Amino acid sequence: MNHSTPEQPADVVARLRATFRTGRTKPVAWRMTQLRRLREMLTDHGADLAAALQADLGKSVTEAYRTEIDFTVREIDHTLEHLADWLRPEPAPVPAHLGADATAWTQYDPLGVVLVIAPWNYPAQLLLAPVVGALAAGNAVVAKPSEMAPATSAALARLLPAHLDTDAVAVVEGGIPETTALLAERFDHIFYTGNGTVGRIVMRAAAEHLTPVTLELGGKSPAFVDRDTDLDVVADRLARGKFLNAGQTCVAPDYVLTDPATAAALEPALARAVEALFGTDPAASGEYGRIVNERHFDRLSGLVDSGRVVVGGVGDRTAKYLAPTVLADVDPDAPVMREEIFGPILPIVSVLGLDEAIAFINDRDKPLALYVFSESDGTRRRIAEETSSGGLGYGLPLAHLTVSDLPFGGVGESGMGNYHGRYSIETFSHRKAVLDKPLG
Ligand code: NAD
């Protein structure tokens, strides 16, 4: 549609709802066509998106493809391959009192019009991966990219309508006023990724219409390093997970928990790992990202003196560059331990052993991810059984969310609900119970 003035949120939702009512989004063929066109958009215009991600976050082309563009393509391919299977009605056993001729099953019904609100840190992936799920489940979608990644937001607002069915998919750009106006409308599901403060605003607005929500939030994700592990391997994997996207990753290891002797050996290993990844001057490395804006740069700079600097600690506000930083001897009450860091600072906090580590984790909000570096089956099992987190990664940060057959989401303060692969179908559908008792 061509509008001289931007379409009002109420009109966007009404228009999409009218499309949904016609039944157009329900056939599996329509869903798959939309997914294929989205895939085409990503392959044909990957370079445009990569340029936007570079402008917004200093992401290298490699990183843009790996963590956003190709990531979403894989999610689409996985969905296209399995969708028919996932949507198959599931028979349920019928109790004897209903008679031998009665049958029962569950079937997935699309919900209607879904709102997806995305954050700025993976501004393409975190908008598009939920959109893949919403479309695969047969819904109409309003997609709201983050205004804090303006180049990516503009690119998506241009590309999505050029590829998808514009009567069923709309992009609404903007910040708080536009999102507030959208949230006043009635949706059939709201999928929000971002911080817990706004998560509460979203949930309150949703309550007015009894709209179900998925909240993909963040928090401090700990990494426990056991003694007697290969610290060069641990340091390499920690550094890769932490400093990807300059630490602005919801599932990045937020801090390290380990005993004092292991901490002492881990410090130089981390310094070596940072140098191996980004050279002696990470500012000159094409592979190292930038902080999203000055406000976050200032916030992060204020956290650097929370401990002894092992590596990094320097930055350049004009370039929004903050070096990959490791802090040792960090007090559990230091400022860096009081909020989600969401930047390239890795504090090491000492605990005396596994019991203390588990207590430390359980004394705090349930994390989005928990990482464990240990060769001990007993340690691995105890952490799995005695802590709660959105996801659990043994030996490798971040990677669990690339497994399409695993649900991705938080618990407690780190969120509610989950998605990816078939779990997106669960999230964006109603599982309808059907009983059939023949009249004859
Ligand atoms: P952000 O500032 O981009 O906000 C997210 C969205 O909320 C944006 O689209 C924004 O327009 C909207 N918004 C902001 N204020 C609003 C308001 N008052 N009312 C309505 N909408 C509003 O991103 P952010 O929140 O800074 O993102 C960082 C947080 O997101 C971190 O806590 C991080 O851990 C979390 N996160 C979680 C995941 C996940 O998958 N679980 C992924 C990425 C980020």
Would you spell out the secondary-structure blueprint of this structure?
Blueprint: H1 9-22, H2 28-44, H3 46-57, H4 61-87, E1 90-92, E2 103-110, E3 113-117, H5 125-136, E4 140-144, H6 150-163, E5 169-171, H7 176-183, E6 189-193, H8 196-208, E7 213-216, E8 222-225, H9 231-243, E9 255-258, H10 260-278, H11 294-301, E10 308-311, E11 315-316, E12 321-322, E13 325-328, E14 345-350, H12 354-362, E15 369-373, H13 377-386, E16 391-394, E17 415-416, H14 422-427, E18 429-436
Parallel strand pairs: 3-4, 3-6, 4-5, 6-7, 8-9, 8-15, 9-14, 13-14, 15-16
Antiparallel strand pairs: 1-2, 2-18, 7-17, 10-13, 11-12
Give a description of the structure.
By secondary structure, this protein is of the alpha/beta class. It has two domains: about 10-215 and about 415-435, Aldehyde Dehydrogenase, Chain A, domain 1, CATH 3.40.605.10; about 220-400, 3-Layer(aba) Sandwich (Aldehyde Dehydrogenase, Chain A, domain 2), CATH 3.40.309. The chain has 14 helices and 18 strands. The protein has helices spanning about 10-20, 30-45, 45-55, 60-85, 125-135, 150-165, 175-185, 195-210, 230-245, 260-280, 295-300, 355-360, 375-385, 420-425; strands at about 90, 105-110, 115, 140-145, 170, 190-195, 215, 220-225, 255-260, 310, 315, 320, 325-330, 345-350, 370-375, 390-395, 415, 430-435. Strands 10-13-14-9-8-15-16 form a seven-stranded mixed beta sheet, sandwiched between helices. A six-stranded mixed beta sheet has the order 5-4-3-6-7-17, sandwiched between helices. β8 (about 220-225), α9 and β9 (about 255-260) form a beta-alpha-beta unit. It is globular. The site of nicotinamide-adenine-dinucleotide has 28 residues, from α7 and α8.
